[in-house]
Amino acid sequence: MPLRSAVDEASFRRILFRNIALPLGTGAVTAVAFVALVLYLLSGINWVEHSERVIGNTQEIGRLVGDKESAVRGYLLTGDDAFLASNETAKPKLIADIDTLAELVSDNTPQVDRLIRIHALQTQWDKVADALIDARRHQGDIASLVRSGCGSPERAETNRELDAFLDIEQTLRIERVASAKRLTMITVVGFLILSLRLSVILAVFGRRELLQLSESYGTAIDEHEQQARALQEQVWLEGQTQLAGRVVGRQSLEQLCQSILDFLAEYLKVSMGAFYVTGDKGTLERVASFGFDPARAPSSLIILPIDNDERANGAIELGAMHAPGDRKRRFLELVALVAGNISDFVEGQRSIANDCSRCWKKHSN
Q1: What are the CA-CA distances from residue 109 to residues 51, 100, 103 (Å)?
Q2: CA 356, 255, 293 angle in degrees (round to 5)?
Q3: Which of 241, 288, 287, 306 minimizes the C-alpha distance to 267?
Q4: Phi, psi angles (nearest 5°) of residue 296
Q5: CATH numeric code, 9-210
Q6: Residue 299, number of CB atoms within 10 A of its CB
Q7: Is 241 exposed, middle or buried (0-12, 13-18, 19+ CB in 10 A)?
Q8: How far, in Å, CA of 234 to CA of 55, rounded?
Q9: DSSP conformation class of 292
Q10: Read out DSSP for 111-137?
Q11: β-strands 311-320, 272-278 pairing
């Protein structure tokens, strides 16, 4: 009987491909999701850094405005030109910082407008400061100019604009820090949930596929074992052919029975045996034996009746160290049938020969 495979090769390849491709695909999806979440988180962190940079530049502008005022005040009080060096250095740097800050907040129009006003106020203040410096050099009435508050409105308005600008950026930074924290939490939780769900899906799907594969292979193995046992059984029962080969050419009943016993001893690994046939008086007579010792009984004794056409014509007695299994019992039943046919045939032939011999002697007399 041909082996009916329970596992189709194409099906096995599909299962194998899915169990390899699915983890790889899951890993790729997880990696892409992780990269996307990290990039999203970095964008939030970048906005926090952007706010901190804007705040730092704003504070630097406030420091430069104060340096300019201190330099001019020092020169007006002492007349020392060394104070003016700080003023001259701070002017271009202040303008450059205002332009840089305007680029940083270019997405926030109100903040850009404030920087434009600060730039205009500082330009106006520089004009006032230049006038005061010129008056000091020409021994003008500095005291009256200072008491008149020249430049104070511009300085005060600059401070108000800088404070308003800074307040807005600090508020934005607080909001962005809070948003970054929320985003971090969402990123971590979202990634964990995604990884967990993908892992569960992968585990459930993989378990189902592996169970199907295991069941299919289990069925195939059971089928293979059944057929192997059937083949072994067939090979075992083919011992009848070997038995027939052993008894071919045996003319006497004693030779026939001894050949059968020798074969059974070799084939079944039994330690003793005896072959009995029914005599003329209907009693069993031992015609062949091996290892037979009535004083020593084996641990397992097998009595195998021999008959032909439901007529008992003998028995086989076998002794072994272990009880025979089902396979040996079935084989012995077949042997009994064959032995009964052969012994009955040989006995018949011997009877015919004896009858012919008696008839010949009668006619001769």
Answers
A1: 15, 15, 11
A2: 130
A3: 241
A4: -115, 110
A5: 1.20.120.1730
A6: 10
A7: exposed
A8: 95
A9: -
A10: HHHHHHHHHHHHHHHHHHHHHHHHHHH
A11: antiparallel
Architecture, CATH, for domain 239-364: 2-Layer Sandwich (3.30)
Q: What are phi and psi of 290, to 5 degrees?
A: -155, 145
- Residue 96 CA to residue 172 CA, distance in Å, equals 24
The separation between the first and the last C-alpha atoms of the chain, rounded to the nearest angstrom, is 66
User: For residue 305, what are the β-bridge partners?
Assistant: 315
Q: Which of 148, 180, 162, 155 is nearest to 59 (CA)?
A: 162
Q: Report the pLDDT value the prediction gives residue 244, as an integer from 0 to 100.
A: 67
Give dist(CA 184, CA 68) in Å, integer.
43
CA 362/CA 249 separation, integer angstroms: 31
Contact 290, 262 (CB under 8 A): yes
Residue 173 three-state SS: helix
* Cβ atoms within 10 Å of 181's Cβ, excluding its own: 12
Asked if residue 298 lies in contact with residue 317, where contact means CB atoms within 8 angstroms, the answer is no
CA angle centred on 316, ends 313 and 322, rounded to 5°: 155
Phi, psi of 270 (to 5 degrees): -95, 160
Least confident of 144-153, 169-178, 222-231: 144-153
Rounded CA-CA distance 336/342 in Å is 10
pLDDT at 1: 41
At residue 7, the 3 state secondary structure works out as coil
Mean pLDDT (whole number) for 261-275: 82
Residue ranges of domains in the chain: 9-210, 239-364
In the chain, the largest separation of any two C-alpha atoms, in whole Å, equals: 191
Q: Do residues 286 and 274 lie in contact, with contact meaning Cβ atoms separated by under 8 Å?
A: yes
What would the pLDDT profile of 327-340 be if each residue is shown by its tens digit?
777 777 777 777 76
Q: How many angstroms separate the CA atoms of 212 and 14, rounded? A: 12
